[in-house]
Amino acid sequence: AQTVTQSQPEMSVQEAETVTLSCTYDTSESDYYLFWYKQPPSRQMILVIRQEAYKQQNATENRFSVNFQKAAKSFSLKISDSQLGDAAMYFCAYRFPSSGGSYIPTFGRGTSLIVHP
Amino acid sequence: DAMVIQNPRYQVTQFGKPVTLSCSQTLNHNVMYWYQQKSSQAPKLLFHYYDKDFNNEADTPDNFQSRRPNTSFCFLDIRSPGLGDAAMYLCATSRDQGPETQYFGPGTRLLVL
To answer: What domains lie within chain A, and their CATH numbers?
Structure first.
């Protein structure tokens, strides 16, 4: 079974500092995709960043970047220059092709990020 | 703005009383998903539709069913809600079945009394 593990239930960071959220996954697939989603309190989940497993280069979106270590099956999210609006639950997700051709999403339990002013 | 809308945001039902949650989308996406999210747990995929094709996850209880009458709307029916079905229910869409970005609605929080 495919699993996604987020070992940090909660993380905190000072405003303007950098924080890294960890995610590991278990798979025997070679074709898969990894995502980080952000879910602010009482608001919908939105995509932060995605990474294709076949790409060696780490994805970057403004202040958000990933450290993708394929051999270690690790996909951590780095948030630089943290802002109060970054406070949210962050979910790591993995999508792999099923036998039917659709890419089934599997989510981790989430990490709650607290940002201190 | 194109979006995923879920109604109602909060739903209270009684033990055993059927309840329907609704989701609509203006993105014209082919795929719609339903997730169950309990506190401190990962969102769990219940099923998804690719166009009219229904795909049930193997461990989704029979108590949960879904309907997609057209591209825009998808419903989650819980035939006989139990206390354990109290959760946040998330609807999501994606353009296609590939590894596309999913777009989520705000969720419906279900309370079972």
So the answer is: 3-116 (2.60.40.10)
